[in-house]
Automatic annotation (TrEMBL), chain A:
NCBIfam families: OAFO_sf (TIGR03710)
Keyword Oxidoreductase in annotation: yes
Naturally occurring in which organism (per UniProt): Polluticaenibacter yanchengensis
Name of the protein: 2-oxoacid:acceptor oxidoreductase subunit alpha
Record key words, sorted: Oxidoreductase
Domain Pyruvate flavodoxin/ferredoxin oxidoreductase pyrimidine binding: 260-472
Domain (Pyruvate/ketoisovalerate oxidoreductase catalytic): residue spans on this chain: 19-211
Pfam families linked to this entry: PFOR_II, POR, POR_N
Transmembrane segments: none
Residue ranges of every copy of the Pyruvate:ferredoxin oxidoreductase core domain listed in the record: 517-580
From TrEMBL, chain B:
Domain Thiamine pyrophosphate enzyme TPP-binding: 58-205
SUPFAM superfamilies: Thiamin diphosphate-binding fold (THDP-binding)
Alphabetic keyword roster: Oxidoreductase
Pfam families in the cross-refs: TPP_enzyme_C (PF02775)
Protein's name according to its UniProt entry: 2-oxoacid:ferredoxin oxidoreductase subunit beta
Record has Nucleotide-binding as a keyword: no
Top-level taxonomy: Bacteria, Pseudomonadati, Bacteroidota, Chitinophagia, Chitinophagales
Xref: Gene3D superfamilies: 3.40.50.970
Taxonomic source organism: Polluticaenibacter yanchengensis
InterPro entries xrefs: 2-oxoacid:Fd_oxidoreductase, THDP-binding, TPP_enzyme_TPP-bd
Sequence intervals crossing the membrane: none
């Protein structure tokens, strides 16, 4: 066997029917890649239907992985290798394959029935008609080979045997990239340990795929991608929702407040509930409520009682929680509202990504109702963003909205995870008694941050009532006084504005402090903007990149930064939302760049757009 | 919660539970009586004031927390039950009371009400039923009788009313009772029983709105009709009612039947004996909900219809699951969590 050919950068996409196990195949290959210290980013792309009709175009599920010996910030625009389990998967994904790229096709998925379901004309089979001559086509009869490998497994039915097909493909790809099978065999042991026949059959098929590739000499060579030059340290692979869950738990541990999550299942936020419901030994209480409104109001009840109250949702759920967010804001109690954004409006595109809830987060409530908004930019960054959202909530006695989205929620990357002792302590103090000069408790007396005291039920001598009606300044008694209302509205706004003094100043991610173009992004566009800007900088262009974590209030130096550039370009996966707010706040002629297709920007299109202003 | 009195506590009186806030219900409103009874009962429960939390939604009744010198929250329309659920689930040691109305608890907040009952959190729901929307000035409510002429239904309402207790038993509530504003003694007893019940207590209180729906419950509350129109339930006692204690209820097959005890056919020993732990009897009793204008109608029962003492509470099981997880896996180790299952090192 010759030595493997070294590659710098590979994008591979696994595509098949929803039932073909492509997400599992993709995530297994991801873990295997991560463990070798290769940098990576992933993009799972699946249909809204759990099982769309088998073999059809809407039923295609994909998993794209970009891995490299360089640093990686996006899952890649076009792929080098496309694995397709059926005709529909080829039809949907061929346009994303680079010219000359490899297609690894499951022959059985191109029978007459599958071709018809994928809308190929009668008698046309792309594997046979030469239409793929610009690509390197490798056809394997995965179904037949899988059944062959399992012929001794007499306890398994044909359906069960066929379910292992994805392991054959995975084994094949492992050979192609010179990997060993251990990480997946360990995984299979964990998953199927209790059913020996299923476990053994999966391992058998995995090995069969590997050996098949080794034997048939379909390739002239194998490939290898070396370790990436990453900051030294210990890494793990992490997905956004996983990181977000851990961020909440970490904030609970570092603040000493028990975590309570009131929530209603909704795509793509439900995994946070799943993750947290397993962490009961951290004192985490998860409450699967009867609806979105009960999700947030149970969290308000818990926060009132002294818990770290959190509710998690996506756009439609946000809409339902609006009134309760207003209550939390009036009560001035801490609460974290997590919105894993998806395509809207209405039910929209539940499994696709979008950044279209920013204006909703800013303005989507009745009355003057300012609520701080922060966002996460990459899968691992969801940890820091969640931790920070909790910190602001409890230290400033306010609800905080955290915006993530479907793309980073389900995407994975390597993470140099922190040690718990390196995480800052979140100081929280309940008020437990009257001060020296107080003869009566004043629930709306404010400190220098304009923050009122947090008193939890059970505290003797400080019994008091709070509610959603306008309150008299300081006493918290109901007040319909016009002057008082204006004062309270202004005070609540000022309290939120003041947070700007307690957050870091905005930094540039790349590029000169002054120049032609500042690309200003927020949320999950980070990786694409970073890749494009670093490429343009390498070419000598005058371009910089700043990425906002804090969207409300903005960092106090943001206005000054904006003045240093001829053009402010604001790319967003929406119809132009941050750009509106920037224009409003800073009177700046910021330029929007928008894509509303349920997918992230591609690096190539981002680079082209920036170039227009250079 | 238990109803044992902690003798070490300073003796509190009704006055200790009043606040300095002016009570702003309309003069003559039934809410005054309910407030008075709650303030009278609270000191007898033996709970420190600071451990009591009263949560309300929106509506006339929902002003209640402002008048109680305990912890309290006047929240948003229909959501008191959900807020209370989150509080109780996370702070099981608190005594949590919910004040709601027929609009707040059965219309806009109906969903949370049934789910709270289903989960059986140990809280006390006081549903002030006045069969009208008072705060919005007189539209019909989900408990208003059909064909009710109100501001929003000039031609008469079309919908059929809820029977609140039937809704509660449909949600498998573990404590179901009814009382009225005009019977302070009975209300005090029902409040004590609600508190003593370990689990979700659903207490419907007939409350007169003298502005928009005056006299809605007159047949049950007025002296001249009360005895013949009401049936006060007592555990282990036969179902007898009437001004002369001359009428009773027997079970005839699967149905209840009104009998005259003076005709010599039936005696007390033939009558239905009330058993508040009998789910099937409770369902029948709850269905005695006739329009008083119908010939031969059943009297309206008051008292405790049903109690299930054996169903565990949500918050207790939740706490047990936490304890159990710690016993099995050890107290959560953040560094272990952050590290996960598989890691790799990058060295310089």
């Amino acid at each position: 066997m010759s030595t493997p050919t070294l590659l710098k950068d590979v994008v591979i996409k696994f595509a098949g029917d929803s039932g073909d196990g492509m997400q599992l195949t993709g995530s297994q290959f991801t873990n295997n890649t991560a463990l070798l210290g290769i940098d990576l980013a992933t993009f799972p792309d699946f249909p809204a239907e759990i099982r769309a009709p088998i073999g059809t175009l809407p039923g295609v599920s994909g998993f794209q992985l970009h891995f490299s010996s360089d640093r990686v910030y996006t899952p890649g625009d076009l792929c080098d290798v496309l694995v397709v389990m059926n005709a529909a998967a080829l039809k949907v994904n061929l346009k994303w394959l680079k010219p000359g790229g490899k297609i690894i096709a499951n022959q059985d998925g191109f029978d007459s029935k599958n071709l018809r379901l994928a809308n190929y004309p009668d008698g046309v089979n792309p594997l046979e008609d030469g239409s793929l001559h610009n690509y390197e086509l490798i056809t394997i009869d995965v179904t037949k080979l899988t059944r062959e490998a399992l012929k001794e497994f007499t306890t398994l039915g044909m359906k069960e045997k066929d379910r292992a097909k994805n392991m054959f493909v995975l084994g094949f790809i492992y050979w192609m990239y010179d990997r060993d099978l251990d990480s997946t065999i360990n995984f299979l042991n964990e998953k199927f340990g209790k059913r020996d026949d299923i476990l053994q059959s999966n391992i058998k098929v995995l090995q069969a795929g590997y050996n098949y590739a080794d034997t048939v000499e379909l390739f002239t060579s194998r490939y290898q991608v070396e370790k990436a030059k990453m900051e030294p340290g210990t890494y793990r692979s992490i997905m956004g929702n996983q990181a977000l869950s851990m961020g909440l738990v970490a904030a609970s541990e570092r603040s000493g407040l028990p975590l309570f999550v009131g929530t209603y299942p909704i795509t793509p936020a439900s995994d946070i509930l799943h993750d947290l419901s397993k962490l009961k030994n951290f004192g985490v209480r998860t409450f699967q409520a009867e609806d979105e409104i009960a999700g947030i109001t149970t969290a308000i009840g818990a926060a009132y009682g002294g818990s770290l109250g959190v509710t998690t949702t996506s756009g439609p759920g946000m809409a339902l929680k609006g009134e309760a967010m207003g209550l939390a804001m009036m009560l001035e109690i801490p609460l974290v509202i997590v919105n894993i954004q998806r395509g809207g409006p209405s039910t929209g595109l539940p499994t696709k990504t979008e950044q279209s809830d920013l204006l909703q987060a800013y303005y989507g409530r009745n009355g003057e109702c300012p609520i701080p908004v922060i966002s996460s930019r990459t899968p691992s960054d969801c940890f820091d963003a969640a931790f920070e959202a909790c910190r602001i909530a409890v230290q400033h006695m306010t609800p905080v909205i955290l915006l993530s989205d479907g793309y980073i929620a389900n995407g994975a990357e390597p993470w140099k995870f922190p040690q718990s002792e390196d995480l800052p302590k979140i100081d929280v103090k309940f008020k437990t008694e009257l001060g020296h000069h107080e003869d009566k408790f004043m629930p709306y007396m404010r400190d220098e941050k304009l923050v009122r005291p947090w008193v939890v039920p059970g505290t003797a001598g400080l019994e008091h009532r709070i509610g959603g009606l306008e309150k008299q300044n300081i006493t918290g008694n109901i007040s319909y006084d016009p002057e008082n209302h204006q004062l309270m509205v202004k005070l609540r706004q000022e309290k939120v504005d003041k947070i700007a003094q307690y957050i870091p100043e905005q930094k540039l991610d790349a590029g000169p402090e002054k120049g032609k173009v500042l690309v200003l992004g927020w949320g999950s566009t980070y990786g694409t903007i970073k890749s494009s800007v670093s490429e343009l900088l390498a070419q000598g262009h005058s371009v910089s990149h700043a990425h906002l974590r804090y969207l409300r209030p903005f960092p106090k130096n943001l206005g000054a930064i904006l003045k240093n550039f001829d053009t402010i370009l604001v790319p967003e996966i929406n119809n132009g939302q941050l750009v509106k707010i920037l224009r409003d706040v800073y009177l700046v002629d910021a330029k929007p760049y928008n894509k509303i297709m349920g997918t992230p920007f591609m690096k190539s299109e981002m680079t082209e757009e920036i170039k227009k202003y250079l | 919660m238990t109803d044992t009195i902690n003798n070490s506590l300073p003796k509190l009186t009704a006055k200790d539970f009043a606040t300095d806030q002016e009570v702003r219900w309309c003069p003559g409103c039934g809410d005054y009586s309910i407030l008075a009874q709650v303030q009278r009962v609270m000191p007898e429960l033996g709970i420190p004031k600071e451990d009591i939390v009263i949560i309300s939604g929106i509506g006339c009744s929902s002003r209640f927390p402002y008048y109680m010198n305990t912890y309290g929250m006047h929240s948003i329309h229909g959501r008191a039950t959900a807020i209370a659920s989150g509080l109780k689930a996370s702070r099981p040691e608190l005594s949590v009371w919910i004040v709601t109305g027929d609009g707040d608890g059965l219309s806009i907040g109906g969903n949370h009400t049934i789910h709270l009952l289903r989960r059986n959190l140990d809280v006390n729901i006081m549903l002030f039923n006045n069969q009208i929307y008072g705060l919005t000035k007189g539209q019909y409510s989900p408990t208003s009788e059909t064909n009710k002429v109100t501001k929003s239904t000039p031609s008469g309402s079309i919908d059929y009313p809820f029977n609140p207790l039937a809704l509660a038993i449909g949600a498998n509530a573990t404590f179901i009772a009814r009382t009225m504003d005009r019977d302070p003694k009975h209300m005090q007893e029902m409040l004590k029983r609600s508190h003593a019940h370990k689990g979700a207590s659903f207490l419907e209180i007939y409350q007169n709105c003298n502005i928009f729906n005056d006299g809605a419950f007159e047949p049950f509350t007025e002296k001249k009709t009360k005895a013949d129109e009401t049936l006060f339930l007592e555990q282990g006692k036969p179902l007898i009612y009437g001004a002369e204690r001359n009428k009773g209820i027997v079970i005839d097959g699967l149905r209840p039947k009104i009998v005259d005890l003076t005709e010599g056919v039936y005696t007390e020993s033939d009558l239905w004996i009330h058993d508040e732990h009998d789910f099937y009897k409770a369902q029948t009793l709850i269905r005695m909900f006739d329009d008083v204008n119908i010939e031969g109608h059943f009297p309206r029962p008051f008292g405790v219809f049903y109690q299930d003492k054996n169903k565990p509470c949500y918050e207790d099981i939740m706490a047990l699951q936490l304890e159990d997880a710690i016993a099995k896996k050890g107290k959560g180790d953040l560094d272990k969590l952050l590290r996960g299952y598989e890691v790799w090192d990058i060295v310089e």
